[in-house]
Specification:
By secondary structure, the chain is α/β, with parallel strands linked by helices. It contains ten helices and eight strands.
Amino acid sequence: MQPLPLENKTAIVVGASRGLGRGILEAFLAAGAAVVGVARDVQGLEELAAANPRLHPIAADATDPMVAGNVLTQWQPDVLALVAGAAPFLRPIHLQTWETLSLNWNVDVRIVFHWLREALLLPLAQGSRVIVMSSGAAVFGSPLSGGYAGAKATERFLAEYASQESRRMGLGIAITAVLPRLTPATSLGRPAVTAYAAREGLEEKEYLARLGDPVTPAIAGKAFVTLATEPEGEAGSYLLTADGLRKLEK
């Protein structure tokens, strides 16, 4: 019998309670890992953990740098998946406020910065993998979500900067970024699909047909297991569509 790809490994999923993060957590469990699921609300994870002793839910605010340092020190993961973020305020730029425009900078970018910083400071073990979930908006833009696209582009930059520092210091931590296309398969993506369809004067089904097949939690989970276990996860950024991962040029 072939061993599971993450058997006897520990993975931390930050933002594990729903959407693509939940799919990633479940994929890591199926691949044999012990999984630490970090989320503000872990009720659903606790129910799953009751039937799976390899799942360890942690209720915490991932933007808190103390949480990042303490969790990484305690668990010393082989894989760190940074998926958490805030749902953007869906309005054109002139209907945003500075507070709504900067929301994803103060949540999403802050999470990635603190956890990457702690991963390098600890540091994680040689051969460990860190996977940052950015967004396809970092490449294609997102005119109805304020600072979201810029924040997600910065997450991609931070992953590359951290990867450079890992190489420069000889740490052996492989760091990648994943940019999923807009998907109606999550609570974050569904309102965006509705808003962009209305902006273009289209029925939702027409807009969805333009998008093509959606990125589902299961597809995201499969992609993250690939990046955690195969050479693709050693460097770079990847666009994620329903067809899987595609390497992005700088």
